[in-house]
Design brief:
Helix 4 packs antiparallel against helix 5, helix 4 packs parallel to helix 9 and helix 7 packs across helix 9. The chain has 2 domains: about 45 residues, no CATH class; about 110 residues, AhpD-like. It has 9 helices and no strands. By secondary structure, the chain is an all-alpha fold.
Length: about 180
């Protein structure tokens, strides 16, 4: 089966739940939602959690998008990369910064604040935990809620990348094709 063939196709519109209809009215019929909508109970639980992290979290949009895009890169998740590239630009990241998210941390002159968020994503990817040194830096900047949220955000986008990559959810046809994260 070619990698571009979804393993589970998006749900046809005439089979959408009421919740999926509401989500699609807000975001458009994104393949992530119409695919995960095939499991209505799980979709309902997940959409609330994911929406909280994306829309109602305590982290700045810049910090959030740095963490998500770095995770998309680590997990080679082109779907996440496609969507969050745009959101990263909206959060104030430049094209050069987004491109640098695919490099080692020393490959770009990140601010100390950006660097510590990226180090947390790198630590979690490499070791499944945040190192004591990175934690100390983060704790000097963030309160308890932000620390919890940052770790959960990165973990959530790892989970989501595993799901999107395994189900082979495709970027929407109207988007420009791009490389995986």
């Amino acid at each position: 089966m070619p990698a571009e063939t979804p393993r589970i196709s998006p749900l046809p519109q005439d089979e959408w739940s009421d919740l999926l209809k509401v989500v699609a009215e807000t975001t458009g019929p994104l393949n992530i939602f119409t695919t995960l909508g095939r499991h209505p109970a799980l979709f309902e639980s997940w959409i609330g959690f994911g929406s909280m992290l994306l829309l109602k979290g305590t982290l700045s949009a810049r910090d959030r998008e740095l963490a998500i895009l770095r995770t998309a890169h680590h997990r080679s998740c082109s779907y996440e990369w496609h969507h969050h590239h745009r959101l990263g630009l909206e959060a104030g990241l430049t094209e050069a910064e987004i491109a640098a998210l695919r490099l080692d941390l020393d490959g770009h002159s990140w601010s100390a604040d950006d660097r510590m968020v990226l180090a947390a994503a790198d630590d979690l990817h490499a070791r499944g935990t945040v190192s004591d040194a990175t934690w100390a830096e983060l704790a000097g900047r963030f309160g308890e809620r932000e620390l919890i949220e940052l770790v959960m955000l990165i973990g959530h986008y790892h989970l989501l990348a595993f799901t999107l990559n395994s189900l082979r959810v495709q970027p929407e046809k109207h988007e420009e094709p791009g490389e995986g994260g």
